[in-house]
Amino acid sequence: MRYREKLSFSIEMEEAISDFITVKIIVQPLVENAIYHGIKPSRVNGHITIKAWQEEDSVYITVADNGVGMDRECLEALQKRLADMDSEEHFGMVNTLRRLKSAYGDKAEMKVESSLSTGTTVTIRIPVERGKSYVPGACS
């Protein structure tokens, strides 16, 4: 790992969702964004936390970092790009959201929260789909 001395991470996942089926490669681009845009420009040792849990009929996945964060203007611009599915910037996030929307329609959501010097948290919400034999591009 390239940022070994500057980066630590933790993963917390509820056992109950270990058999959940979802679209491939939805966490990786979010972790890459956290490293490149949050941790790399930061002067402190970075930490990324990945969490996954179920609430009622939805599974939530968060990727949070303690990096540089974004000011309100940058956060609003990112949220607009996600809402418009505009991929000129933040291609990884927009592409991830497109794939989620393709698989789950309006049941899939992505929310970004951030503040300067505190970090950024990206939360994905997708419907529970246990036992499906095939979801396009899925891995279990």
From TrEMBL:
Gene Ontology MF, one: kinase activity
Keyword terms: Kinase, Transferase, Two-component regulatory system
InterPro entries associated with the record: Bact_2-comp_sensor_kinase, HATPase_C_sf, HATPase_dom, His_kinase_dom
Segments forming domain Histidine kinase: 1-130
Protein name: Histidine kinase domain-containing protein
Source superkingdom: Bacteria
Record flagged with keyword Kinase: yes
